[in-house]
Design brief:
It comes from Ottowia beijingensis. The chain is of the alpha/beta class and 174 residues long. The protein contains two helices and eight strands. The longest helix has 13 residues. The structure holds 8-OXO-2'-deoxyguanosine-5'-triphosphate (8DG). 8-OXO-2'-deoxyguanosine-5'-triphosphate (8DG) binds next to strand 2, strand 5 and strand 7.
Length: 174
Amino acid sequence: MADILKADAHLARDVPGERPIVDVAVGVLLQADGRFLLTSRPAGKVYAGYWEFPGGKLEAGESVEQALARELHEELGLDIDPADVQRWREQLVDYPHALVRLHFCKLFDWRGELQMREGQAFVWDTLPVQAAPVLPGRCRCSNGCRRSAAWLQADFKKYSLLRPSHKDFSINSI
Ligand SMILES: Nc1nc2c([nH]c(=O)n2[C@H]2C[C@H](O)[C@@H](COP(=O)(O)OP(=O)(O)OP(=O)(O)O)O2)c(=O)[nH]1
């Protein structure tokens, strides 16, 4: 399988060999000035305290857009229209606890006041990413990148996510 990011490769996998892929909806909420929302993973979850984009696992029968709308409401009290979700890119990550397929989506419109319903912290971050550590965990891939957010920053730049006219930016152009 191409382009799998292996996180914490020095740690044993829960189930060596074939593992089911867990699909995760990930929301990159972007403000007009280019700042994006990161939240901390609540206590009790794997990688507790790590910063991530809000989102979560798809439930049976859900689309990525539906899952993202549900998760943003449950975790942050924000409401979105699934039609406003812009699919961005996908990334497979092989974690010790699971093999996940992250469905990154961009969002420019949401309603409601931010509520940290699971006791998370939040930050509207910029580039270079200030929050640390950021998921996926420290990368030990063959490329030798050791910084947790290296791939993220590279991709943000590559896709010109933060250029001033980003509201007009079409996902079809990447
Ligand atoms: N939400 C989110 N998850 C991410 C990101 N990056 C990343 O590797 N993940 C991984 C971590 C987890 O293995 C998985 C998300 O699972 P989760 O346990 O947070 O999902 P959930 O909110 O549905 O949790 P639960 O119902 O099982 O409690 O995706 C990210 O930026 N945001």
